[in-house]
């Protein structure tokens, strides 16, 4: 049902930053805070969160994402949580990779939902200019001071520095796993076909008299 993806071993400190909504990525932290406080998040948010935990950044098993949803989601639907976590992690055989891989920065910029969630659930960034609200670490220091939110002091620095490079490396690994699985599948099918007698071959005539 799932590809044998070599997921990373879970680092407890990293998962603690996830569960405490202190990843340093405002879009992800806002999603986590809404999930914990309200027991519900929008479908787009669910996609972004699962992607962050699995193939997007941390490269942890889809089970970690499913467990997080199971713990805080009021839906309490283990089938739905497991199914969507498995599917969106990119490890499900029925669909090799999601059509959209969510960046912990860029995916929140589509529409107004991201800005609204960040301003609502992360008070330290409430006055931050929209230009930098998804990446506060890029804001000039004087802007951080003026808004009362200095990164690494009033709001945590991102737990993954090179998030785009991490995303690309993880996706490349998954693509390679998918290609290998597909090649093995084709090889097995050809081997079976080679062993199967052709229905068009007539049996040799008998030599008995």
UniProtKB/TrEMBL annotation:
Cofactor(s) the protein needs: FAD
One Gene Ontology cellular component annotation held by this UniProt entry: cytoplasm
Keyword Flavoprotein (UniProt): yes
Pfam families to which the protein is assigned, alphabetical: FAD_binding_7
Gene Ontology biological process terms, A to Z: circadian regulation of gene expression; entrainment of circadian clock by photoperiod
Gene3D superfamilies per UniProt: DNA Cyclobutane Dipyrimidine Photolyase, subunit A, domain 3
Keyword Zinc in annotation: no
GO molecular function, one term: deoxyribodipyrimidine photo-lyase activity
Residues passing through the membrane, by range: none
Keywords: FAD, Flavoprotein
Residue ranges constituting the Cryptochrome/DNA photolyase FAD-binding domain according to the UniProt record: 5-168
Location of the region described as Disordered in the Swiss-Prot/TrEMBL record: 188-209
Family according to the record: Belongs to the DNA photolyase class-1 family.
Name this polypeptide is given: Cry4
Species classification: Eukaryota, Metazoa, Spiralia, Lophotrochozoa, Bryozoa
